[in-house]
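Q: Entry one of two.
A:
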Amino acid sequence: MSYDVIVVMNVLMQGETVINENGIVIKETFQRIEEVDSLSVLPIDVTPNEVELNIGPDVPNIFKDKVQESILNYVPHKTKTTNVELNILIKSNEPISHQPRRLQFSGKKIVQTQVAEWLKQGVVEPCFSEYSSPVVIVRKKDGTPRVCIDYRKLNKVVVKDRFPLPLIEDILDRLQGSRVFSTIDLKNAFFHVDANKDSRKYTSFVNHEGQYQFLKVPFGLCNSPAVFQRYINTIFRPLITDGIVLPYLDDILILSSSFEEGIERVERVLSIASEYGLEINFNKSHFLKKRIEFLRHVVEDGKIFPSTLKTKAVLNFSEPANLKQIHSFLGLTGYFRKFIPKYSTIARPLSHLLKKDRKFKFGEEERI
């Protein structure tokens, strides 16, 4: 038997498929991630078969073996818990509700698969709530689809949790005395924290199959970062106090002065993480490195350097042609303020262009 064409089902599911006299046309139906602002981005979980060990190139084999052993033996037992949970207070008595957004067939399948996974994991449950936020699908730059909950309207009426995130400058100051670093990346970090029973109704979302609410802290909710930072600080408080660990949301930085001290501290952190049932993404974690990138900065030999990506972004920035581009350029270069002496003086000609009623003119003075 012969065929004029064979089309794999995975291809047809990438978008809306139209068959006409010109052949088969597949229209992409997903938004790009840049087009959606402040959404809850919830990745489809994929568990790798093997762990790629990210370890410093000059680490002696004896310490490499210990790191590998610690990873292979890691099990999130969860024998301890905290009293930290998500509590949502609302400033308005009027419920926030949305109808489900229309999705193409391929999008519905992605949402269906993700919701089924969350139900299995105990992350969400079916519900009846007067609150509801819509589900959307976006594509990241690498083309991967993501299931998102759009909490933007709800966030406007939520009383803000004022628990502070660590100041990046304070963290960087504490890095400068260390020589060996490890970073632990948590998997689906917010899902480690329970949502209070009375607050779950506010997290409700709707899709083509029904209505659900989160049992865990959802991504995209304005208070989720503060709640999670409180949670992770509670778990590692003794190590934070001793200057061993610096957690920033789902990134846990371990400081040490030598490989020997580094592996001992990694083992302590993993032991505590296991007790509290923390799921770790070891493929994105790094161990016993003398040079790391953390919070958009490079740390090496007790010194802080600008991120390579940030430097490239400035070098590749086109000459500004309007005020909006001046704003963007100053926002980008402001990152380098601590690395460039007299930055304000150097940037003053550009800052003057932003003054009210000043005519835009980009000349030699501004180029300097």
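Q: Entry two of two.
A:
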Amino acid sequence: MPLFGGYKANKLKPQLKMAVTRFTIASNKKSALMKQQIREIAKLLAEDPPKEEKARIKAEALIRDDDTVEAYELLQLSCELLSERLNLITHSKECPADILSTVATIIWASSVVDIPELIEVRKQFRYKFGAAFDERAMLNVDGIVNDRVASKLSFQPPSAYKVQTYLEKISDEHEVGWKPKVPLKAEDIAQPMPPPVGYSVPENAASGLNKKDYDAGAPAPSMPSTILPVPPKGKEGAYVPVLPAPAVAIPVPVPTIPKTSNKQDDVSVTKDDFVVEEPDIFVPPAPRSRPHSGNNTNNSSEVNNRGRTQSAGENPKGNDDDDDDEDKTGGDATYDDLAMRFAMLSK
């Protein structure tokens, strides 16, 4: 027995009575909240379209609260029973067999429910029946804890069938007329409710523009593209986006670089870059005859003699091939001389 404490009947009995009152208050509080949850679920099912997935989540919380209230009522009965049999507990060295499950259930529930009085009750039973008995009750050895209380306070989520049953009952009570959009399969009845995938969430709910609105002919911005997609097969009157024609590149002529004959440039020049043309030699018209001291006969004979002299390769004095008067003879090239030179160049 501990030095500064131990089993005391005068401490156990008031704690049991206070626990009964605490269970009653907690049950009434949860029951009021459950009625509000039921109204919220009915409102979700009555919307168009029904928010079925959100209603299922709230129904799961409703089921958990319902199970908790049921467990509170069972634990409340256990506390009342132990309070009435307190003398039997006080005068027994070991836990009586007829209340073994009741005492073990109270010890196990003290760490699950939010009732502080059960913690003090557990301490008194630990002082009375020992730490080994307390450990057996906490681990539920041999199933000594009440099965119904253990299942109602379990952390396992409810089955999908139970959730759907709650939704159908709420729909019938509030005359909503809801039917499940996705029916349950046979293999999913005993399994927990699947996570939401968003099939009950409407598209573009914030802006109010549903897919039906902008598919009915509302203008949509066109995007440039060089590939024209095949128009989808939709309903008659549906909007089909028209994409602009692809841009075509216009060839721009490249400016040519003029060819130069400068030897300092490194540009290679081929023979095709130049076209050899005949030189355009300007032949002036025949000059007017200038007066001479002699007659025309002398002039013609002089021209004939000069032609014979040049054909023979001679260069008479005073008649050189140059147009200037380098020999100081006073002679000058005539039109006939120039014509003869041009004929020789053409050969």
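A: Comment on entry two: Confidence is low (pLDDT under 50) at residues 291-300, 309-328. The chain is about 45% helix and 0% strand.
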